[in-house]
């Protein structure tokens, strides 16, 4: 890419992080900015926890646990055991090494640093090259509307293991939340050459990012390629509750429903929608939404898979 | 003791905790209230840390490290190592099990609980019988005036290892800090039968407690015995910087200087001043301050030593 030209990738946690890792490996250190959902952030035991940012930091730095799918490889659990002995809440599992991240972040935030500054510090401490940007330095909190009432996101996601049927979502604080200032600078400077919407949950990972005041409209006006990758493959979510949510919201559980959601909510934003070969039959109906449709294998097990999908997406963006 | 009659012991950390343990072993579970200095409390890595309360909780529940003199026996250091790897400040050493205490406290405080309520919760979780009361639920912060400028207490005490010469102390927030509400109830109900000022640092452990608005005057008006135990033995502090502080403040480094400090600052409060046998020669000059002087061995190495001194103090209080 030309000097200063960057890919902007919008992502939530685990699913999006896989493609983010592929992009990070395919692009130079100054060619990728990751804009990460922070509407899952929450306070727990006095700490500020940013689950999606941490997933990105751990995944990109090669620290994430392969076995568990979350948290750190080689994690230990001394603090959790002591918390259990004190009768404290332990539904959100805090590993010892993971805790160091939360402590450093919480301490710096308490000292007045922005989440952007703290995330940069953590990224440097972990030897990361790509720019990991929280979607906003202002607090936004996803509330999940369920058959059992409104639940804070982590209560729904972790404590209740996504069991309650959802009827909708709201993002508290989003009206007053400014998009990440470093991103705004890059947008203003014309440094963004393409935008990738990673295969993250459209409702609770991508929507809070895109619904920051003015952000999706500004991206749409960039006249650079915007490529979204479906998180739904063969009627199932690779990871997380996206498929269950589609069903509970009364939508078809397929990649087309995700494309329709983006088209309806963000008209004209997505230029190309990437679906899995297993969903090739959906291509025509998605094309009717006014998007180009690109079909390829989107499952990302190995690092090679991730890099291959990243190359495919970058090629669709003309990069 | 008669039903409902209690000993109130004022204490800071390690030195006072030894006598507190002796008192706890000599008295019934409902016969001891410990009022603990919280002017050393501070925020670190987003956590609310109450060093003196924790020392009391750990000492009374038999959890404290014999070897280190602070923190927990059998502690592990996974989080500290991870913090070091992230380049975080680690001058205040956080053990994994100790962290669980700070996390539980910080989480409950953030949820709106008072420090008194959280301390009660922690005490119960650790199986403690005596009542451990923070001196106040309101924040008070010791500032150490030194030759190098003003330092927050933990920076002076831990980070700088008490090196800078002190010229005085102030307790930020103390004017607006109410004494512990549970203590005020006990005082109002006439439940306090005797008051013990433990052998803690007079300047940074006992003074902040006694200088809570109205507290020492209220204790003085109780007309119950008030027994103070000297933290200085043979011209040395058993633990901590009390002797160094006396010298830097231009006072003689002996038990008499502590007695004179109490007599001058809290006239009429202390009825009996307990000094070590090694300091028997000071008895007459201390008696001139209007206090009874009691001489005994005050070194507390073994649990037997602690219980013996506790019995001695209780006997001097007529209990």
From TrEMBL, chains A, B:
<keyword id="KW-0460">Magnesium</keyword>
<protein>
    <submittedName>
        <fullName>2-phospho-L-lactate transferase</fullName>
        <ecNumber>2.7.8.28</ecNumber>
    </submittedName>
</protein>
<dbReference type="GO" id="GO:0043743">
    <property type="term" value="F:LPPG:FO 2-phospho-L-lactate transferase activity"/>
</dbReference>
<dbReference type="GO" id="GO:0000287">
    <property type="term" value="F:magnesium ion binding"/>
</dbReference>
<dbReference type="Pfam" id="PF01933">
    <property type="entry name" value="CofD"/>
</dbReference>
<dbReference type="InterPro" id="IPR002882">
    <property type="entry name" value="CofD"/>
</dbReference>
<dbReference type="InterPro" id="IPR038136">
    <property type="entry name" value="CofD-like_dom_sf"/>
</dbReference>
<keyword id="KW-0808">Transferase</keyword>
<dbReference type="InterPro" id="IPR010115">
    <property type="entry name" value="FbiA/CofD"/>
</dbReference>
